[in-house]
Here is the input.
Amino acid sequence: MSRSPSPPRAEPVDPAAGVGPGATWDGGGVAFSLFSAHAEAVEVCLFDPAGRREVSRVALGVDDDGNWSGRVPGIGPGTLYGYRVYGPYAPQRGHRFNHHKLLIDPYARLLRGEVNPVDALCGYRVGDERGHLSFDLRDSAPYVPKCVVLGPPARPLVERPDVPPADAVIYEAHVRGLTMLHPGVRHESRGTVSGLADPAVVDHLRHLGVTAVELLPVQAFATESFLARMGLGNYWGYNTLAFHAPHARYLAGNDPDEVVATVDALHAAGLEVILDVVYNHTAEGSELGPTLSLRGIDNASYYGLDPDDPSLYGNPTGTGNALDFSREPARRLMLDSLRRWAEMGVDGFRFDLASVLGRGPSGFDPAATAFREMAEDETLSGRTLIAEPWDVGPGGYQLGGFPAGWSEWNDRFRDSVRRFWTGEAGTLGGFARAMAGSAEIFEASGRPASASINFVTAHDGFTLRDLVSYDERHNEANGEDNRDGHSANHSANHGVEGPTDDPEIAAIRARQQRNLLASLLTARGVPMLLAGDEFGRTQAGNNNAYCQDNEISWVDWEGADHDLAEFTAELIALRRAQPALGGEEFLHDDARLAWFSEEGEEMTPGQWEEPERRALAMRVAPEPGAGPAVLICVNADAAGRSFRLPTSGASWEPAILTGGEAGADGRWDAVPWSLAIFTASEPGG
Here is the structure.
């Protein structure tokens, strides 16, 4: 392989200086450090302030552990750079080095510019008869973002909130989607992390009563080429480009310290910050994808390769590649990135396709080294760790299989609650188990009820309003002939597909939204609310809006259903006020958890087996002396029913009704599709 004339060599880095990976400014110069176990040479390339012209290259030295490093004097913050890494281009042995491709530092804290998805990004010659085994000589630098040298990072000034898991209510939101249309957010802050800290947003979250904001990916990401060809972009952000850098478009002033300031503002309001992080794969895709960073730095050290043909990638993510966390380089990169965000004040992480983290040669392992190292890390101690407990590879569905200390997105809760409220037969037992905390999933591992992150809707799928307004997905705007997204949504339009002026259908939909919210916010476990569901946000039936950075996905604040928002706030306040609705333990004692028919009698085994039974009452009590019991009555039937409330030495006071009337005679006359919540009041008390 030919090389350019040898560039000047950087100064050695003093081992005593404690310089870590990435670019570190010391006041008089910048020390660069990059790991590559199989490289033959590494050069750091410096660019002009516009990032258009490469002005110099400097060679780095290497130690016995594969760490390439060197100090370049006379440069500092604001310097733009990238790497060129030399080595064998031997895909059949897992190596894809190509020094013609400018590479992004995996430890870069800020990127300037965006990926321009042209063929020159690929390490192989697109269109060559040898396919990805060919070699491309074009320089990719004009089409690649440049890394930015930064000074010392800001540190949080506000102490993190200490929210007990039993009190947690998570609000899943998108940085741009939440703020782009908010009339109270300053125009220059809309669509940025600074917009999240705007008093107009913070006041809404506080009034609502949530305790944590879970943000869709904010790590720097890229748009896939097939979306770019259709004039669309990756809106959700599940296509990571640089694990340490915030997405530049989310920074109003192009300064990562904005993230710290926003976290401080949310902490000051008592709100925790959880980041949705994507470590399972990168934006480089399959062997036919671009060479942007890890592929050209050390493909064989970072990625999971096909053992029978190392020129191909293992693909348990369905995105073309997956990092191999059985290897130390991938684990180190992830842990260093998590520490970086934790040091910015972030309270927790939700791991996309988290089963990949535990994959090894024998499949998923809850005792995998990656899990152990996270548990032992002092910086991550006390941080919330949430798994999306599946990937698309063999044995990838691992709900309930994660180790102690982890919570998990509980999609069975979602499906059980949806199926019950749409009136599907034979769903009563699944609904009851979901409301009781899904002990059959989480208790055996010794974890508490808060291990279950309960949700009815999330970013992936219908919004709450669309869930009760559409039978089918309507994803035509995505450019895939409505073939993308889930086809089984367990939704119901109640007579008309989409918007309607029919008052009867509108009333049912209003009740159903409240029924689903009430089920979510009274079930045992940690509830997660999708942003905008509290006031009826719609995506016009699009259940896969990952590429819609527009009014389809943005939260419509002007069109908010304020009555629904107040109802949601009342539910969250009730959850916080009633100890019976919290708690970490699973309940199996009839004194604290009991189930009743609409006749007010305890459910019999035969009644549980009746496929058409759609009415149920759940009585749950806290520890003795901690507060009153709570009774939740549900009627998921198209017909009204009269409930006789169970007697237990106490009378029942109505707290929340989505429909029907509660009489003084100990009855609730339920209308079709309705729910009622009562609290116990001692006689004469």
Summary: The radius of gyration is 27 Å. Residues 592 and 621 are 5 Å apart (CA to CA). The domain at 593-681 is CATH 2.60.40.1180 (Immunoglobulin-like).
